[in-house]
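From the pipeline queue, job 12 of 40. The input is one protein chain; the requested action is below.

Action: predict structure.
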Amino acid sequence: MESSSSAPQVITCKGAVAWGAGEALVMEEVEVSPPQPLEIRIKVVSTSICCSDLAAWKHHTIFPRIFGHEASGVVESVGQGVTEFKEGDHVLTVFIGECMSCKMCKSGKSTICQVLGLEKKGLMHSDQKTRFMVKGKPVYHYCAVSSFSEYTVVHSGCAVKISPHVPLEKVCLLSCGVAAGLGAAWNVADISKGSTVVIFGLGTVGLSVVQGAKLRGASRIIGVDNNPRKCENAKAFGITEVVDPNSCKEPIAQVIKGITDGGADFCFECVGDSDMLTNALESCCDGWGVTVALGVPRVKPKISAHYSLFLRGRTLKGSIFGGWKPKSDLPSLVEKYMNKEIQIDDYITHNLPFDEINKAFNLMAEGKCLRCVIHMPR
């Protein structure tokens, strides 16, 4: 436990550590260092399993590691120079920070901060070191958050203050999945009323695109997925029809063009499969069809598409965190949730205690859940 000294001390707590690719997470006694300058230490309240956690656990090479990035919590202590947060503040974590002062942040054209952009090495942005130790060994971070620990340390630019009245066990989904899907529909694609939308992949992100499309007044929202359970559940979120590519006698792009009079206005790839992204691009209509890539492929990352698709007017866009600027934009999404303008609760299909985190991973791997929220001990 923390010392009575006024300065933050090392905290020993439980953390779910991945020691190797695809290996079951091990609940370990983790030493969490005090926050360094411009950092905050957070007591995690709720966190959820995202597909990117699952994919990284299977394919990454940097271990041992503490995964998790979609989380909510309470500030336990702050490092030198932190003025935005104080002990007791409620926060959402974000895997892409916002420094507010770099070229990208000031441009108004990008959400990828030059200082606090995508973290790839498993180390803190500030000093390229880790804040976790287990049995004398350093344990690496993930996505600048590492929320599969009772306590974690993040850069203050990778957290967003929210009202203490917001339910932390629900709103954690806005730190990645639900926000990513809504933003892709609204900010990146800018879906118009009466349009035809096709979503490839009906997990949480895909169904959040569905919600965004429905709120924008899309006339047809077509879901593409080979998981019957997901196809059935999707109807409750606003899907007007579903297509299982495994049951089609023609290539999926031909099927989509056939039922949409030549192609959809908007297509979204939410799986993380480069071949599926090509299918999505081919499913768009000539002239103005827009395809948005949200999924992150872990294998075969290069895409292949005939140049004539672009000459004929199609557009391919990438979407990171739905085009939201975390600190600037997330508070408004939280407010929409509190005002019941957007839905979060229905994406939570399972709630589990922290010590059952491997069960949550299995549910995600088997396609048996949307979001499984992990609740930390109070």
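Job complete. The domain at 181-319 is CATH 3.40.50.720 (Rossmann fold).
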